[in-house]
Specification:
The protein has a single domain, classed as 3-Layer(aba) Sandwich (Uracil-DNA Glycosylase, subunit E). It is 40% helix and 11% strand. The longest helix has 17 residues. The protein is globular and about 50 Å long. Strands 1-3-2-4-6-5 form a 6-stranded mixed β-sheet, sandwiched between helices. The chain has 231 residues and is α/β, with parallel strands linked by helices.
Length: 231
């Protein structure tokens, strides 16, 4: 697929994502959060829609997260933006040359990604950060479509076990081959898939992991240092 055609196809896919209302529970939740936000966000206009993928459409590095945060991405309209997880992620991406700045505050803050694209297993903020099985199933076709379009990918970083499982299901549905036995999840584990794509696992940079020390900044940066070396 020509470069311009790829960018256009991803843009069209993202338009469909933003318009999606397939999951009634998620629609209610994302809109309820916008109407009754925490006090610190009173008066702030929320995005309150599904979040599209974000980044360089010609990227060789794909990052797959779980789902937007209710008062993070659901507020700002960009993946991993407006919460502590995003501070960790974009700080790492900037350090290793994938982002032009170390922070992501809102959709119009000038952030640009180079050779990196970010997507998620579920594109709407779920209650308690826990999508249901049917919500994963309804949203997976978007990730499948992205994988079919982005044939140039060489490295995939999955953030957390749930993103890992979702990626493998989508990868198989996209017509790609999965290793047998199935790859295992663990922070820093890297697996070269049969088509040459390297899958790198990371703990999710959630506060639950970063505040407890399960994930430290050196551990997280090591993942992107390795991804950079492969590219």
């Amino acid at each position: 697929m020509a470069i311009d055609d790829l960018a256009k196809a991803l843009s069209q896919a993202n338009t469909r994502i933003v318009q999606c209302r397939r999951c009634p529970r998620l629609v209610r939740w994302r809109e309820t959060c916008a109407k009754a936000p925490p006090r610190r966000y009173h008066g702030v206009k929320y995005w309150a829609k599904p979040l599209a993928g974000f980044g360089d459409p010609h990227a060789q590095l794909l990052i797959v997260g779980l789902a937007p945060a209710a008062n993070g991405g659901n507020r700002t309209g960009r993946m991993f933006t407006g919460d502590r997880s995003g501070d960790w992620l974009y700080g790492a991406l900037h350090t290793f040359g994938f982002a032009n700045q170390p922070t992501s505050q809102h959709c119009d803050d000038g952030l640009e990604l180079t050779n990196c694209y970010i997507t998620a297993a579920v594109h709407c903020a779920p209650p308690l950060n826990k999508p249901t099985l049917i919500e994963f199933e309804r949203c997976r076709p978007f990730l499948v479509h992205e994988l079919k379009l982005m044939r140039q990918l060489r490295v995939v970083v999955v953030l957390g076990k749930i993103a890992f499982d979702s990626f493998l299901k989508a990868y198989k549905e996209a017509g790609r081959t999965i290793l047998n036995p199935r790859p295992k999840f663990g922070h820093g584990i890297a697996t070269v898939l049969p088509d040459g794509v390297t899958l790198i696992c990371s703990y999710h940079p959630s506060q639950q992991n970063t505040f407890t020390g399960k994930l430290t900044q050196p551990m997280f940066y090591q993942v992107f240092d390795y991804a950079k070396s492969l590219l």
